[in-house]
Write a structure and sequence with these properties.
Elements lengths: L1 H10 L2 H15 L4 E6 L6 E2 L23 H13 L7 E6 L3 H8 L4 E7 L7 E2 L12 E6 L9 H11 E8 L4 E2 L5 E2 L6 H8 L6 E4 L2 H7 L3 E5 L1 H4 L2 H7 L9 E5 L1
Length: about 260
């Protein structure tokens, strides 16, 4: 299964993967029924999660039913337990909308919910996060997960996110983090293999590190690094597989 998923994600373009991922889910999930792991988003119980990603760290990550990863499951719990996302009347802009969330967020009657992406076939708006054709002060909440590591001009992205948020608005800006280093980038690195070695993935242009809260603060946000992961019982964290190394915190950036 590892080799098959790795091959599929390498060969097929992102747009095609998005369109056919749920068909894959329907076909594969009967082989994973069980009760060892649980997804808090879809409520599915399985003998294990699917592999996803690269190398040895790809085991036991992807929910066979809703296709959530660790970061999605942790964010779902954070939004339910620490915010009014599911109850308050909020205008939300969601960049690169993740499939585990898309239909569930759209179904929430309290949200005025819009999705955006450069080229995703499931997004409402086709926008560049560094240059949004959106008036100032429009949104209460902006979600932008695992996007900023792909953006050449991240300072411009931060500026645009602040601009479109209402005063007092907040953004979820989760990124892959290496807790052993400080954030670094090198625009001269364009070779996919070298980017993978330095930044963790062939299409990443930087590696965010242990100083990520400081990076957000310097960009002008009021930052909260929420510790819900550590507040949960060990058994629940293990059963739901809520985080990878360095990604145990939910970063909330307020304006």
């Amino acid at each position: 299964m590892k080799k098959l998923i790795s091959l599929i994600t390498r060969i097929f373009p992102r747009q095609m993967l998005i369109r056919f991922s749920y068909l894959f889910s329907l076909l594969i999930r009967p082989f994973y029924w069980g009760n060892k792991v649980e997804c808090p988003i879809c409520g599915g119980h399985f003998r294990k999660f699917l592999p996803y990603g690269y190398g040895e760290a790809m085991d036991n990550r992807l929910c066979p039913k809703c296709l959530s990863l660790e970061r999605h499951r942790l964010l779902w719990l954070y939004l339910k337990e620490k915010t009014g996302f599911f109850t308050d009347n909020l205008k939300v802009l969601h960049f690169a909308p993740e499939q585990p969330f898309l239909k569930r967020f759209r179904a929430l009657k309290n949200l005025d919910y819009t999705t955006a992406d450069i080229d995703s076939p499931i997004a409402d708006l086709h926008l560049d996060v560094t240059e949004m054709n959106i008036p100032d002060n429009q949104y209460d909440v902006l979600i932008c997960n695992h996007v900023l590591e792909h953006v050449d001009n991240v300072d411009k992205a931060f500026s645009e996110i602040k601009r479109v948020l209402k005063p007092g608005g907040w953004a979820i800006l989760m990124v892959p983090i290496n807790p052993d280093v400080d954030t670094f980038e090198d625009p001269s690195v364009t070779d996919p293999e070298e980017r993978k070695r330095l930044f963790g993935q062939y299409d990443h242009v930087r590696q965010f590190g242990r100083d990520y809260a400081d990076v957000l603060s310097k960009a002008g946000f009021k930052v909260t690094a929420d510790r819900l992961y550590y507040e949960l019982p060990d058994e629940k964290r293990e059963k739901m597989h809520l985080a990878r190394k360095g990604e145990e915190l939910v970063y909330v950036a307020k304006v």
